[in-house]
Specification:
single chain; five-stranded parallel sheet; 15% strand; alpha/beta; 311 residues; three-stranded parallel sheet; Rossmann fold
């Protein structure tokens, strides 16, 4: 796919995910240091299966962000031919290790591995991605202690606009179990009126033009254009797509046509630099929360942290 290069204007319309992410990480770092002083240093373990270049880039970014947030980061790489049973055994060992406070499962996984099976095997207290069925279910009750990272990040950016969420008309384009649906539940819990659109929706433009805020997460570059947005609306673009430009180089873009949407929207997230940095910050915040919850769990059950838990 070819695309023209459009400069990204720097103005008040842009929701700067890098700045928001840095703010959230600073708060997490302070709590991580307090937990470490109490013998519960947060430790995040990444599981990567196969040689996946895109996933390795994410892992490097996660490691860098974790290290600046006083969170230890371990990387476990497994060959592509590793069986599901072997991976389930590895997760069980991490669940039982009190030195590990968070587990993240990198995607994509080889075709013979069930993402749901592995995600379900991660103990809910160590599910820092917020994607265990129990964690997803908790958001129905507005329990956001460890909510789905991308969804929580996207909603956080909408809140940064200052728009009151009660009664806000919102359209969510995309109904995946890990992004679109959780966003809808999060917004409903805040009192927003939510319409969820997807590939079977008729007249998508009719819905999006009526919304005060639009979220899009479908993996289709240029899907949302400026004439689909109500003037002054907030546009939260969660898509991450690599496109080939006319000169043969590649570029990462979102699901919205940035240039045309920027002319109409009141607020807009750039890609990259929008939802992504906030998602990483939420992941690290969840890791710190997981350490705090596990500390409370062990102290409630045993009176003191488990022997040998202190570094």
């Amino acid at each position: 796919m070819t695309a023209a290069i459009h400069p990204l204007p720097r103005d008040h319309k842009i929701l700067d995910g890098k700045a928001v992410g840095a703010e959230l990480r600073a708060a997490s770092k302070a709590e991580a240091e307090r937990l470490a002083a109490a013998g519960w240093a947060p430790r995040l373990v990444s599981i990567l299966v196969g040689d996946v270049a895109a996933a390795e880039l994410y892992v490097r970014n996660q490691r860098r962000a974790a290290e600046t947030t006083a969170i230890a980061f371990d990387q476990r790489n497994y060959p592509a031919e590793t069986t599901q049973a072997e991976l389930l055994a590895a997760i069980a060992a991490l669940n039982a290790d009190p030195r590990v406070t968070g587990i993240i499962l990198q995607r994509p996984l080889p075709p013979h591995i069930s993402v749901r099976a592995l995600q379900s095997a991660i103990h809910p207290l160590k599910d820092v991605e917020g994607l265990h069925p129990a964690s997803i279910g908790n958001i129905v009750y507005n329990d956001l202690q460890m909510g789905p990272c991308t969804s929580v990040a996207a909603v956080e950016l909408l809140k940064r606009t200052g728009l009151g969420l009660q009664g806000l008309e919102v359209v969510v384009i995309g109904h995946s179990e890990i992004v679109g649906k959780p966003i809808a539940f999060l917004l409903m819990s805040e009192g927003a009126t939510v319409t969820v659109c997807h590939h079977m929706t008729r007249n998508l433009r009719v819905h999006s033009r009526q919304a005060d805020a639009v979220f899009v997460a479908v993996g289709k570059p240029g899907l949302v254009t400026g004439d689909m947005i109500k003037p002054g609306a907030a546009l939260i673009d969660i898509g991450i797509n690599q496109v080939t430009l006319d000169d043969g180089t590649t570029r990462v873009v979102g699901d919205a046509d940035y240039a045309s949407c920027h002319e109409v929207a009141g607020w807009i997230t750039p890609v990259p630099g929008g939802v992504g940095p906030v998602t990483v910050a939420i992941l690290l915040g969840n890791t710190v929360t997981a350490a705090r919850l596990q500390k409370a769990h062990y102290e409630s059950a045993f009176g003191d942290p488990l022997p040998g838990r202190r570094p």
